[in-house]
Amino acid sequence: MRLSLFSKTMLLTALIVVGFAVQLSDAKAAEARAYFAGGCFWCVESDFEQVEGVSEVISGYTGGTTPNPTYKKISKGGTGHYEAVEIRYDPSVVTYDELLHIFFRTVDPTDDGGQFCDRGESYRTAVFVSNPGEKAAAEKAKTKARADLGRKIVTPILSAKKFYRAEEYHQDYYKKDEIVLTRRGPKAKKNAYKFYRKGCGRDKRVRQLWGKDAPFAS
Q1: 3-state helix vs strand vs coil in the chain, percent to 5
Q2: Would you please indicate which residues are annotated as catalytic (active-site) residues?
Q3: Ranked by mean pLDDT, which of 18-27, 53-62, 184-193 comes out on top?
């Protein structure tokens, strides 16, 4: 059967589309996910999106019992949820062990009342694991952190629960200018995230604890 030029073009286009779909499916299949709580999720997202091999970090809520949590709900307390992140990464580029090593050195794992200026249950640290392999890796990383720091590590290792994506205004917050209301109307406040992070003392405390091993503290 002879195909017309139009039919050949359509067939070639279909094959290309199928090829891209297969590549995308393979890429998603190879992508792994890690779940950490490290205080303000804006900061954790900002840190881990700098890691080679990490494709995306999503701010959200997990660990609690309240369905469909919101920022307002968890801020009031009583939901059991943590501010947390979902880290999507390529394990052929960065391993789960490496992510755990980085995580412990970007937080104060000796503080069980929150992180830095953010206090309360939703700002506590935690590692959420999905299988025995992740649990063993997390326990090993926690032991190494304790040995390196020479202090008790209070960060718990918990079984993963449903992860809820936070409101869109929280996603990539560190890249945005905050909108504030003035007498003359809405106004963009430049570098709002940087002012918050510095004012909260996150980097200063991380440097005090981890020194040169702190990967992101400026």
Answers
A1: 45, 20, 35
A2: 40
A3: 53-62
